[in-house]
């Protein structure tokens, strides 16, 4: 079983409009509401890949209840810490080929909630063989919160894959309890290192040689339609993918994390791990709903992923 963590889940609401009128009334005919948050995308794809998954994090109020109900409908186990505050709504207005987003910050957590969650997390580790942690931290939690979760996982010998950015990622990398894998994209990598990292092999290799990545077994730098650049231990790989028909690329990074988690959990060879992660990422872009794949297309696209080891 894999534990997928989303500390600040949301109800994602999409409002399609032919034209957005400012300072006026906009009436919406069809509303789509889904359980959102990066870790929930990861969980859905893990489930679609045929692995058992538990979702956790912090939620509350009627929005929190909606998220739980959506997970139940998908037959995904949920073990969230319930709080008195309301979970957030994230609104996307789709208009004139543009997407205008209105994102609530969500609840602010205090010491009590933070301790209660860490205790819950420790207990859940007894049921799983690996963990994925995705997305940003809710306000009120210290920037080293993911490191605290890593320390607990390390003490239970449970490997962790982390997909976060900014200071939360830096804190994970500077401390001694290391994740098994991280999955930055190029802009997150550039932000972390404070330099513009190019997408050529030389720049990527130089970037991943940085002191900050010492001790991280897997670094998967996802590069959208350009596939990925991977460091595994001391080896570097360029992972190439075919040109495909993209319907909705949102959540592809999360689907990549899901593929990575499934292949690592199955102890598959390193080539299979990289190809699986790329395939789930690609399959996500081919579906209209975010964080979802068609498992029946897996073999066809897996065969089209090519690897090149860099000397
Ligand atoms: P997000 O934040 O939306 O989850 P990300 O920036 O973390 O995305 P990307 O690098 O865009 O992640 O995509 C992850 C993987 O998904 C890629 O490595 C690739 O396998 C697949 N992918 C994404 N976009 C495309 C695309 N346009 N064509 C083909 N594959 C894609």
UniProtKB/TrEMBL annotation:
EC number: 2.7.1.144
Pathway: Carbohydrate metabolism; D-tagatose 6-phosphate degradation; D-glyceraldehyde 3-phosphate and glycerone phosphate from D-tagatose 6-phosphate: step 1/2
Keyword ATP-binding: yes
TM annotation in the entry: none
Catalysed conversion reaction: D-tagatofuranose 6-phosphate + ATP = D-tagatofuranose 1,6-bisphosphate + ADP + H(+)
A GO CC term attached to the entry: cytosol
Keyword rRNA-binding: no
SUPFAM superfamilies, alphabetized: Ribokinase-like
GO molecular function: ATP binding; phosphofructokinase activity; tagatose-6-phosphate kinase activity
Keywords: ATP-binding, Kinase, Lactose metabolism, Nucleotide-binding, Transferase
Chain ranges of the Carbohydrate kinase PfkB domain: 6-292
UniProt GO BP: lactose catabolic process via tagatose-6-phosphate; small molecule metabolic process
Entries under CDD domains matching the protein: FruK_PfkB_like
InterPro entries reported for this sequence: Carboh/pur_kinase_PfkB_CS, LacC, PfkB_dom, Ribokinase-like, Tagatose/fructose_Pkinase
Protein family according to the UniProt entry: Belongs to the carbohydrate kinase pfkB family.
Protein name: Tagatose-6-phosphate kinase
Species per Swiss-Prot/TrEMBL record: Fredinandcohnia quinoae
Encoding gene per record: lacC
